[in-house]
Amino acid sequence: MDKTTLKALICDDSAEFGVNLASYLNQYNIYAYTRKNDESIIINSIIKDAPDLVITNLTLKNSDAIELIIKVRSILHK
Predict the structure, then answer these.
(1) pTM score, whole prediction
(2) Residue 1 has pLDDT above 80, yes or no
(3) Contact indicator for 37, 11 with CB cutoff of 8 Å
(4) More confident residue, 13 or 8
(5) What secondary structure does DSSP assign to 18-69, as a single string?
(6) N-term to C-term CA, the chain
(7) Among residues 9, 27, 63, 77, which is most buried (max CB within 10 A)?
């Protein structure tokens, strides 16, 4: 992966949707990978893999997107 390639994290419980979206994004030189739509899994993946963008639903299994943003910002600012 070169420096111009974006990395996208796709968060969805439907494997079929995630794979289809990842395949579509790959056509535009965006490396995409999928994870379950669960707050702790998403946070761990953001910390470990440092994606350039995160695609998720507004509601998560045990949280919502706003809480996710607040928690990630708090963790990354430390």
Answers:
(1) 0.85
(2) no
(3) yes
(4) 8
(5) HHHHHHHHHTTTEEEEEE-S-HHHHHHHHHHH--SEEE--SB-SSSBHHHHH
(6) 28
(7) 9
In this structure, are residues 1 and 29 in contact, taking their beta carbons and an 8 Å threshold? no
Q: Would you say residue 15 has pLDDT above 90?
A: no
Distance CA 58, CA 30 (A): 22
Structure tokens at 48: 């470990």
Q: Is-contact 17 40, C-beta < 8 A?
A: no
Predicted confidence (pLDDT) per residue in 52-63, tens digit: 999 998 988 788
Instruction: Give the contacts of 63 (CB within 8 A, at least 6 positions apart).
Output: 39
Residue 34: which of 62, 4, 55, 63 has the closest Cα?
55
Residue 56 amino acid letter: T
